[in-house]
Write a structure and sequence with these properties.
This protein is 35% helix and 25% strand. With 979 residues, it is α/β, with parallel strands linked by helices. The protein folds into 6 domains: 134 residues, no CATH class; 97 residues, no CATH class; 116 residues, no CATH class; 85 residues, no CATH class; 241 residues, Rossmann fold; 233 residues, P-loop containing nucleotide triphosphate hydrolases (Rossmann fold), CATH 3.40.50.300. The chain has a 7-stranded parallel beta sheet with strand order 34-35-33-36-37-32-38. A 6-stranded parallel beta sheet has the order 39-44-43-40-42-41, with helices on both faces. Strands 6, 7, 8, 12 and 13 form a 5-stranded mixed beta sheet that branches. The protein is elongated. It starts with 10 loop residues before the first strand and ends with a helix. It holds the Pfam family SNF2-rel_dom. Keywords: ATP-binding, Helicase, Hydrolase, Nucleotide-binding. InterPro entries: Helicase_ATP-bd, Helicase_C-like, P-loop_NTPase, SNF2-like_sf, SNF2/RAD54-like_C, SNF2_N.
């Protein structure tokens, strides 16, 4: 309880004992203040689970148990407990008048007090004696003794009867009890206080001490000797040292056998060999220092008691001990013998099983081991385990040879799954399943499914077999895929090396009928890699049969496959994605795989005829549309189902998750830059979609992985989970594939307007077109200003109508898409520059970032030079500032922002040079990362025209918005912009 001033705790918990009734001492827990040396001083208040927090004391499991015991030993609780139901509660003094009740009360109290004392001594909690509020608790602390007291019994036979003495040995000192201040706390087991030291007394009951507190010798009359010895002495005589005078002595010294008994060592997982020397009437541990033992034998008469004395034969014992050491056993843990240090936990049992006959021939007796009261069979087990593939499952089967017994592995597996190591054998003994088996086969039986006499393991769980040296022969080797693989003929793209590796990887899973999750960083081409795999599947379908309607549905005349399906041989792939990605996917497929027929299954006029849907290679739809049309879609058999931005199904309880898992597909792919957003539960949802039951049920997954990893930081569980999902999750960061990337990647992302946004935009565009074309005056400066104002207004609405209409309360498609992109990139640890022509648009992002407590830098034309430099320095040096909002005019030149590796062009500028200069703020000398620039374009808006002008009519754009020279554009040019 004492400590130094630098590490002391200001408050500690002390358990105080006080006498509540004769032989009954009850505890209370107190919070006690400590002095500068760490010693307890004065009681502050009662210690209860609810009061610990205010004193910064932790409620550990052991402390919680102590509080429970203290509550059970509350005086009123005891009185209520031992009073009959619905009767008036009697005080403790009255209860103890009934001897039967007193006996029950003492057992109840002493058992709990024993547990309290043991925990306090073990955990280092202070125990005080009769402390009060004004007491200095440190002066009343009991000091636990490091060694138990050993009783010694002295008997002398006289004419009148027997005199009896009980003394206690502490180390080498033996002292009479009456010479000390002794308080007996408990009877069984015996705890006593001597002065302010706390002891346990071996072998005897505590109440045996009480008669000797006032006198040294007890005289037992002849008439009572037999009864007294029978009740009090014989129980402990064989366990303690006895010195007797005046009794007949019978001596024995013949060593009958050396007995070997395997026992589980107390503080380790290992087994040790207990060696005992067996004599008639006595057994000695080989290392016991006692040369003899004395016991008592009762005759027929009242005081006919004989002394039985066994003396050890050290020479005979030495011969046995030499043989023990010659066998290779070593004494390294107390008195126990073990195999050398490198041996596994159960190896000693197997060693005994192998050498049983040899040991018996040498004269040893071998006792069967007992563990938790069960007799353990001594056999070395032999296990043959195999696996055979049956469709999408592996059947695990094998046999265990155990001496004369043959046991199917499935029977043992059920015990391993139940974490029960005791397998009953026909002869009444138990096979103790080796700890190594419990660990090694635990996950196979935990993830496997018991069906009849078979243990099934999903094919996706083949990694579990690999670790058991069971070959999953049906798995296609990666090297074979690499050797045979060729990109499909219809692909119109040159893949970078890492993209080619990604396609090979997904093709391997395609050939093995296993799902895959491609989780590359944004901008690395997940869409292109997936298109290549779909084209591969299209060109190599095993059969020419068209997609079939789900056989579980009732077909009618209009549901039957069309007669030309054999000719078309459609792929029948379904791609489910957020609405904002539909146009981008369709554009990418048209660009890279024009041979694939694509159908956009969205909108009110979408097909509801399975025969029509079955004619396409690729059907693209949104998550919400798939949810609404799930009854239609689940009637089809898809070759592939692809989920883009698959974090959309992370909530396993969502209707979307449940819907996509109803779809029938031969193959599945999920695409996500962030497969784990908030919790490992996200990962379970992803894996459950691509490879059902790979990680077991969610309840099992939570117990097996989420709780140990997220709450306990269990590294072994992390490694296990990583091993199981690694074959199905491919993630490459931009940094990892930098050598395969060009210095700059520029991508265009198309956004769709929200319904209300589109309505306002079209109204404004019609008004501008009607007025400007009806009043076409290209040489009028005022007209030129009106053209510029109208085009600017349309550009702002394409960004967000709130830039024009102050009361606009709806969303913007592009604004929402930019935030989604930024969320993915930010979580991956990247920095980005946000460029816009409109400060007001940047202000919308600033407001959003502030609401989410995101730090950012800000640069517009209104900043002073020193403010400008401060913002740049913050962004470059502070890792917590991940975004930089910049107006394209004020920040397009003169900046060096190499901390960023993503550039967002929020709206296109007429002159592409301006955008290139903005991108060059990050993509410049000193940049050690690959830079990805994303241009956000609102579809069906003037932004698409600006994009086209950047390539085809740059001069026209300059003519319309330029400040010098005569504008040279025609009515047709203006119509093109306002079409």
């Amino acid at each position: 309880m004492r400590g130094n001033s630098t590490s002391r705790k200001p408050y500690v918990i002390v358990f105080n004992l006080s006498e509540a009734a004769p032989d009954i001492f009850l505890p209370l827990a107190f919070i006690v203040k400590t002095d500068r040396h760490g010693s307890p001083t004065y009681i502050q208040q009662r210690a209860l689970p609810d009061t610990l927090g205010a004193f910064h004391l932790e409620l550990t499991p052991k402390l919680k148990r102590l509080f429970e015991l203290v509550e059970e030993l509350d005086l009123e609780t005891i009185e209520k407990h031992f009073c009959p139901p619905r009767r008036k509660v009697k005080p403790i003094g009255t209860l103890l008048e009934d001897q039967e009740v007193k006996k029950a009360v003492l057992i109840h109290v002493h058992r709990r007090l024993d547990e309290i004392l043991r925990i306090c001594v073990e955990q280092g909690y202070g125990i005080s004696w009769e402390a009060e509020r004004k007491s200095l608790v440190g002066d009343l602390l009991l000091e636990p003794s490091k060694q138990d007291l050993k009783p010694e019994l002295f008997f002398e036979r006289t004419r009148e009867g027997v005199t009896y003495q009980l003394r206690l040995r502490e180390g080498r000192q033996v002292w009479p009890i009456h010479t000390k201040d002794v308080t007996v706390l408990t009877n069984v087991p015996a705890w006593i206080i001597v002065g302010y030291r706390l002891y346990q007394v071996e072998h005897i009951n505590g109440f045996m001490v009480k008669p000797f507190r006032q006198k040294d010798t007890i005289r037992i009359p002849r008439s009572s000797v037999r009864t007294y010895f029978k009740q009090f002495i014989f129980k402990v005589a064989s366990k303690t040292d006895i010195i007797a005078e005046g009794f007949d002595v019978m001596q024995y010294n013949k060593l009958e056998a050396c007995e070997l008994e395997p026992v589980r060592l107390l503080f380790s997982e290992a087994w040790g060999l207990s060696v005992h020397m067996v004599y008639q009437l006595a057994r000695f541990n080989w290392s016991d220092k006692k040369e003899q033992t004395t016991s008592l034998k009762m005759g027929e008469g009242q005081d006919e008691i004989s002394i039985l004395q066994v003396r050890r034969d050290k020479v005979a014992e030495g011969i046995y001990m030499a043989q023990v050491r010659k066998l290779g056993l070593v004494n390294q843990d107390g008195s126990y013998f073990q195999l050398p240090k490198d041996a596994e936990a159960e190896d000693l049992l197997f060693w005994l099983a192998d050498r049983r006959k040899e040991l018996e021939e040498l004269g040893f007796r071998l006792r069967s081991p007992q563990w938790e009261g069960k007799p353990i069979a001594l056999y070395r087990p032999s296990l043959q385990l195999n696996a055979s593939q049956n469709n999408d499952w592996f059947d695990i089967h094998g046999e265990i040879e155990l001496g004369p017994h043959r046991i199917p592995f499935l029977e043992i597996a059920r015990y391993i799954k139940a974490e029960n190591r005791y397998f009953p054998l026909p002869d009444g003994t138990f096979f103790l399943i080796p700890e190594e088996w419990m660990h090694r086969y635990r996950e196979v039986v935990a993830f496997g499914r018991f069906k009849g006499d078979k243990l099934h393991l999903a094919k996706s769980q083949f990694t579990l077999l690999s670790e058991l040296d069971i070959e999953a022969a049906a798995m296609v080797d990666v090297a074979e895929v690499e050797a045979d693989f060729a990109l499909p003929d219809g692909l119109r793209a040159d893949l970078r090396p890492y993209q080619l590796d990604g396609v090979r990887w997904m093709v391997q899973h395609y050939q093995n009928d296993l799902g895959a999750c491609l989780a590359d960083d944004m901008g690395l081409g997940k869409t292109l890699q997936t298109i290549a795999v779909l084209l591969y599947a299209k060109e190599r379908r095993a059969t020419a049969a068209p997609a079939q309607v789900n056989s579980g549905a009732q077909l009618d005349l209009f549901s039957a496959p069309a007669p030309d399906m054999d000719f078309l041989k459609p792929l029948n792939a379904l791609i489910i994605l957020p609405a904002s990605l539909i146009f981008n996917w369709m554009k990418e497929i048209d660009k890279f795989a024009p041979g694939l027929s694509v159908y956009n299954h969205t909108g009110p006029k979408r097909h509801t005829d399975v025969r029509l849907l079955s004619r396409f290679d690729v059907i693209i739809t949104t998550y919400q549309t798939a949810l609404r049309d799930i009854e239609l879609l689940e009637r089809m058999e898809f070759e592939y189902v692809v989920l883009d931005e698959s974090q959309q199904i992370k909530n396993r309880e969502s209707k979307v998750f449940q819907a996509v898992n109803k779809l029938n597909a031969g193959h599945k792919i999920s695409l996500s830059g962030t497969p784990i957003e908030n919790s490992l539960a996200d990962l379970w949802s992803q894996m459950q979609f691509i490879n059902p039951n790979l990680l077991g049920s969610f309840r099992f997954f939570k117990k097996e992985f989420i709780t140990p990893i997220e709450k306990q930081q269990d590294d072994l569980k992390k490694d296990r989970l990583r091993t199981m999902v690694q074959p199905y999750l491919l993630r490459r960061t931009k940094e990892e594939v930098a050598r395969d990337l060009p210095p700059l990647i520029t991508k265009i992302f198309y956004s769709d307007m929200e319904a209300e946004q589109k309505k306002i935009y079209e109204k404004e565009k019609s008004a501008a077109r009607n007025y400007l074309l009806e009043n076409f005056l290209p040489n009028d400066p005022q007209y030129r200003i009106m053209v510029l104002q109208s085009l600017t207004k349309l550009r702002q609405m394409a960004n967000h109508p709130a830039l024009v209409l102050e009361d606009y309360g709806k969303e913007s498609g592009k604004f929402k898409d930019v935030l989604e992109h930024w969320s993915v990139i930010r979580r991956a640890g990247h920095k980005a520059l946000f460029f816009s022509s409109f400060v007001k648009y940047l202000e919308l992002f600033r407001t959003q970032f502030q609401s989410e407590k995101q730090q950012f830098s800000w640069l517009t034309g209104s900043l002073k030079p020193e403010e400008r430099q401060r913002e740049i320095q913050k962004f470059e040096s502070d890792p917590d500032i991940e975004s930089f909002l910049i107006s394209i005019k004020s920040g397009g030149t003169g900046l060096n922002l190499t901390a960023a590796d993503y550039v967002f062009i929020l709206d296109p500028w007429w002159n592409p040079t301006v955008e290139q200069q903005a991108i060059a703020r990050a993509h410049r000398i000193g940049q050690d990362k690959q830079v990805i620039a994303v241009k956000f374009i609102t579809r069906d808006s003037i932004e698409e025209k600006i994009l086209a002008l950047q390539d085809k009519k740059a001069q026209l754009a300059e003519d319309i918005i330029g400040n010098s020279g005569k504008m040279d554009f025609s009515r047709e040019d203006l119509e093109y912009l306002l079409l």
